[in-house]
Amino acid sequence: HNSTSNTHPPILWGLLIAHNCTAPRQWKEWEIGFLQQLGVQMAIALKQAELYQRVQLLNIDLERQVEARTSELQQALEYESLLKRITDKVRDSLDEDQILQTAVEELAKGLNVICCDSALYDLKNCTSTIRYEYLRAEMISGVGRSTSFDQTLEIYTPLLKGQYLQFCLLKGAELSIRKAEHCFAIFSCPILDDQEVLGDLWLFKPKRESFDDLEVRLVQQVANQCAIALRQARLYQASLAQVEELARLNQLKDDFLSTVSHELRTPMSSIKLATQMLEVILRESGILEAEDNGISQYFQILNHECKREIGLINDLLDLTRLDAGSEPLSLMTIDLATWISHLAESFAECMKKQQQEFLIRVPAELPPITTDLSYLERILTELLKNACKYTPSQGSIAVEVSLTEDDNTFLINVSNTGVEIPKQERDRIFDKFYRIPNNDPWKHGGTGLGLALVKKLTEHLGGSVQVESQENQTTFTVRLPSRMTLH
């Protein structure tokens, strides 16, 4: 027996028996002592054998636990990789169908299930419709089938509350959305965001299997990513619809303005002609020269407003033609230094009257430019007209021309002092009818079409226009190709 422990009673392992069967024998003390020592050694050996066996069993159990833990960690890493792959794919898409198809296929392959499908809810009509599925041959397809929540309240009640559930579908049972030819273990997880339940994911396994915690967590995370992606896709589609509607309304507005402009052009031309004839008659009768009546002043107002309306109509028609791209170009080669000096003469009287300084900086060695002269004249006229209008007395207006290093692009800068355009308004000043908000928006007159025309004309010449405004100075930069060719 084992009696080495002081805290536990001796344990009887067995008996060591020595037999002398030939005749009676009186055992000697040394023989008894020998047998006792032998029994002690056998007890020690048996104890060691038991401890060794326990250690072996413990090692086997530890190895089993390590293998199980390693397998669990490996599975977790695989699921993490699968989740990242699904997340990257669904986040990169703004198409609902692509999002659901990706999630279904990746989950079905990654979890090796019999079937995986995704459905979208119609909360208004209380129905669920399967949109995509991935299944094996023994399953019957359910794509396109719809079911009412009321038909299976025990399933859709928790799903609509954002809760997942596992259940079994017995052979021959029918869910109104999918008939079972075999028994299945089913996991259903809602796709929901912070606003509502958008749909669900269903996964099918053989009847004797179940979904473990890692699988449940993975499906929930995929459902969350699908919810985010679906919400983004729907917001994108809503914004596209809004943009299309705005574009349609803008086109209707342009069509209306074009139609109105065409319809008004003829009567305004008749009014202008009648005004000219009336002026001839009044001058011949001496009425316009009379100083004691207001007829001359009224006539000037009539003449001015007539010209203003005709100018507005012509601007609208020009914009319509430019938008349609129907206006052909008439190219000419000119010397910019001479041409700009000649153009500036028409503004000299206005600038002198308003006490504005005008500077022209054009290098003498500048090469000629080939472009449509009428377009270029209209561009610079509009920019100089704006500069004269908004530059205060004692302010300065400058036109500077330069050439890029590759000699392919002309830079025409029209700048004026005394005014600064707010940063938030600079991108909008080229929009049609847009005027910078201030306390007196009609102080300087105008229709808000001038800069819109400048932009369209510049683009039609193959160039661009931009504005910079800081330190009480505004500069418009027109970039034009040095030589245009007709295509």
Based on the structure, what is the oligomeric state of the protein chains? Answer: single chain
The count of β-strands is 13
How would you state the average pLDDT, rounded?
A: 83
From the alpha carbons, calculate the radius of gyration and give it in angstroms.
46 Å
Described by the principal axes of the CA atoms, the overall outline is elongated
CATH class of the largest domain: Alpha Beta
Number of individual domains: 4
Order of helices and strands: HHEEEHEEEHHEHEEHEEHEE
- CATH fold annotation of the largest domain: Beta-Lactamase
Low-confidence stretches: none
Largest sheet: 6 strands, antiparallel
Q: Can you characterise this structure?
A:
In the N-terminal section; belongs to the phytochrome family. The strands form three sheets. A six-stranded antiparallel β-sheet has the order 3-2-1-6-5-4. Helix 1 (29-91) packs antiparallel against helix 2, helix 1 (29-91) runs parallel beside helix 4 (213-284) and helix 2 runs antiparallel to helix 4. The chain has helices spanning 29-91, 96-111, 153-160, 213-284, 295-324, 336-353, 373-390, 450-460; strands at 115-122, 127-135, 146-148, 165-169, 184-192, 197-206, 331-334, 357-361, 369-372, 396-403, 409-417, 464-470, 473-481. It folds into four domains: 1-81, no CATH class; 90-240, GAF domain (Beta-Lactamase, 2-Layer Sandwich), CATH 3.30.450.40; 249-324, Helix Hairpins (Orthogonal Bundle); 331-481, Histidine kinase-like ATPase, C-terminal domain (Heat Shock Protein 90). It is 48% helix and 18% strand. It is elongated and about 175 Å long. The protein has eight helices and 13 strands. With 487 residues, it is of the alpha+beta class.
